[in-house]
Specification:
The complex is a heterodimer of chains A (255) and B (420). Chain A is an alpha/beta fold. Chain A is built from nine helices and ten strands. Chain B folds into three domains: 17-289, ABC transporter involved in vitamin B12 uptake, BtuC; 296-352; 361-420, Arc Repressor Mutant, subunit A (Orthogonal Bundle), CATH 1.10.10. Helix content of chain B is 76%, strand content 1%. The chains are: A alpha/beta (255), B mainly alpha (420).
């Protein structure tokens, strides 16, 4: 596969299955650099699996994932990951600063302790998400939005050009959603590519430059106004389109 | 003199010295590795490994005796136990992966099965191998052999070195395995390494506290430390400390009461946990109870706020009592609100701070919107106020905005007052 350096992530014919059930089927997409991309689709559509395949955590049955032109299995650390809030053990004995410091682990040789510059980098990342005042708190003591920002800081401390976020807006209030979006926007401006799993169609058009619509198969990739069209959504969301009719009208007026 | 008899004289006995040294070594390393076991919710696995061991010990004994004629060869039995432990883990994951049987059931099946195999083997070959089943099940910390001491020292040194060297690896792989894999850490290998470490520790601890109690030595000190620390490194150090104190306290207990050694150690360990559970400053029961006691009902707080706002000036307690419910805890509520900087206490009564004013206006607005809404759905006028008074405490911001929008952003409530 030829790469011209314009694409951060290239996915080719990606198929992943769990116990003979296909989670993803023949997904091909090229994501350009410096974009904020939303991944949408109903529950169980394979959105998280898609993210894990890009991370190289899930091995594809067939197909390739290229990160900056390199195979995902070999491009370790070039992609930073922000887990879904439900996937984290919030009672784990770990402080905010230690989580941010994890972002530096790849750069620390196994035989030494983290140096001052590593701690500095972790604190700097916390400052970027405005969480430096909470550095010594245990992570379970934070609010939902603050927890999300700590993991953003960890991803920023990794210094990766590509960030993958699994449902960062799930279960946070509107003000927090703004604050997180603000961090995402600033990350994008500093030259990062962000791929975000998102479940709320009503905000998808407003937040993202490009949308990927998947449900096992790839249904669309492109700017929001082309992806959020009635025919596509009715295919993917089947009978539940009624709730989106308002949204489509709104999008229609804009387009 | 009594003190000397109680504390110093046991120390002069060789059996006590050996028990103390061996027990402390084992408890230290068990506590440290136990932290990871607790955080990964693998406690049941520790139990499984210790039970599976007997088959390994019997197997190792038999093989060494048949092949080399060596009697009770320690290394042979150690390797046999390790082999049995790893086989158990492999069988468990195999069964839970390929069948619909869930992991906890698979653990239960496999460890009892392999334990039974060991018991049968030991009894069939009782002419060849001399293993005291009772010793194996109950342990004998007061009869520690020099050989056991060396084995446990070696195991402790190995396992502690591994855990300290790869501390960060274990930390990330436990906390966030997906992230660990994404930065190129061999997560599966780390899991196997940890299981091997746990097996080693279990194997070296069984001769002291026995099959049944070994899992307690693994998880109880770690759980005790878990209640006291918010960092993994500190949790590990505390767990090592608690493991050591259990052994010391338990051994004295056992000498004083003339009881079984392993039982006394675990009893002391459990009591230690219960004490910490009660008094831990952050995660203890007492602290929790104090927090709950300090908690004041949000509804009363909001009632006080709106009362003061409506009164318009410094409000005496008697007026507040009239309007806000819950009269008996009122003093506590007011103190708490002053502490939280919502109101200030003056000679004439209580006034709102800026923040208190903001909160009060929010509640009052909610109240009036609810009244307006209730009026539109035909609620009788005399029920407007009491019903709205209940509903105003729904704190979710979206609800109020929904009402506002639905009512078309009214400027006045049904009583003709400004919405605010």
């Amino acid at each position: 596969m030829n790469t011209d350096g314009r694409h951060a992530i290239e996915v080719e014919h990606l198929t992943v299955s769990y116990h003979s059930k296909p989670a993803l089927l023949d997904i091909s997409v090229k994501i350009e650099k410096d974009l904020l991309v939303g991944v949408i689709g109903p529950n169980g559509a394979g959105k998280s699996t898609f993210i894990k395949a890009i991370l190289g955590f899930v091995k594809p049955d067939i197909g390739n994932v290229l990160i900056n032109g390199k195979n995902a299995q070999k491009a370790k650390g070039e992609v930073a990951y922000v887990p879904q809030r439900g996937a984290v053990d919030w009672d784990f004995p770990i402080t905010v600063e230690e989580v941010a410091l994890m972002g530096r682990y790849q750069k620390i040789p196994w035989y030494t302790n983290p140096k001052k510059r590593d701690h500095d980098a972790a604190l700097e990342a916390l400052e970027m998400v405005r969480m430096q005042d909470f550095a010594n708190r245990q992570i379970g003591e934070l609010s939902g939005g603050q927890q999300q920002r700590v993991f953003m800081a960890r991803a920023l401390a990794q210094g990766s050009k590509i960030l993958l976020l699994d449902e960062p807006f799930a279960g946070v209030d509107a003000a927090t959603e703004r604050a997180i979006l603000d961090v995402l926007e600033r990350a994008k401006q500093s030259g990062k590519t962000l791929v975000v799993v998102h479940h709320d169609l009503s905000t998808a058009a407003e937040y993202f430059d490009q949308l990927i619509l998947i449900k096992q198969r790839m249904f669309a990739y492109g700017p929001p106004h082309t992806v959020l069209n009635e025919e596509l959504l009715s295919q993917v969301y089947e009978g539940r389109l009624r709730i989106f009719s308002d949204l489509l009208k709104k999008e229609g007026e804009k387009a | 003199m009594i003190l000397y008899d109680l504390f110093i004289s046991p120390l002069t006995e060789t059996y006590f010295q050996k028990a103390l040294i061996g027990g402390c070594i084992v408890a230290t390393v068990a506590g440290v590795v136990g932290c990871l076991v607790v955080l990964r919710r693998m406690a049941f696995l520790g139990d499984a490994l210790s039970h599976a061991m007997i088959a390994g010990v019997a197997g190792g004994y038999l093989v060494m005796k048949m092949l080399f004629g060596a009697e009770a060869h320690a290394t042979g039995m150690l390797l046999g136990s390790l082999f049995a432990a790893i086989a158990t883990v492999a069988l468990i994951s195999f069964v839970s992966r390929i069948s619909r049987v869930k992991e906890d059931t698979a653990i239960g099946i496999m460890y009892t099965g392999i334990f039974a195999l060991g018991v049968v083997a030991v009894s069939i070959f009782r002419q060849y191998i001399h293993i005291d089943l009772m010793h194996f099940i109950m342990g004998d910390i007061l009869g520690v052999a020099d050989q056991d001491l060396w084995v446990s020292a070696f195991v402790a040194a190995t396992v502690l070195s591994i855990l300290i060297l790869f501390f960060r690896h274990f930390q990330v792989a436990t906390f966030d395995p997906i992230m660990a894999a994404s930065i190129g850490l061999p997560v599966l290998l780390i899991d196997y390494l940890l299981t091997t470490c746990v097996s080693l520790v279990v194997v070296s601890a069984v001769s002291m506290v026995g099959v049944i109690l070994v899992v307690g030595l693994l998880i109880t000190p770690a759980a005790t430390a878990y209640l006291l620390s918010d960092r993994l490194d500190r949790m590990m150090m505390l767990a090592a400390l608690f493991g050591t104190t259990s052994v010391i306290g338990g051994l004295y207990l056992c000498v004083w009461l003339d009881s079984a050694g392993g039982g006394a150690v675990m009893l002391f360990c459990t009591l230690q946990f219960l004490v910490v559970l009660a008094v831990a400053p952050k995660y203890g029961l007492f602290a929790r109870w104090m927090r709950l006691k300090k908690l004041v009902p949000q509804q009363t707080v909001e009632d006080v706020l709106t009362t003061i706002l409506r009164y318009g000036k410094a409000t005496p307690v008697s007026v507040i009592r009239q309007y806000a419910e819950e009269s008996k805890g009122m003093r506590k509520v007011l103190e708490n609100m002053v502490e939280n900087n919502l109101i200030t206490a003056e000679a004439e009564g209580y006034s709102l701070t800026e923040e208190g004013n903001k909160e009060a206006s929010k509640v009052l607005r909610a109240h009036r919107l609810w009244e307006a809404y209730l009026a539109t759905i035909g609620t009788p006028r005399e029920e407007l106020h009491p019903t709205a008074h209940q509903l105003e405490h729904i704190t979710d911001g979206n609800t109020v905005e929904y009402l506002d929008e639905k009512l078309g952003h009214p400027s006045h409530d049904p009583h003709g007052r400004h919405m605010g």
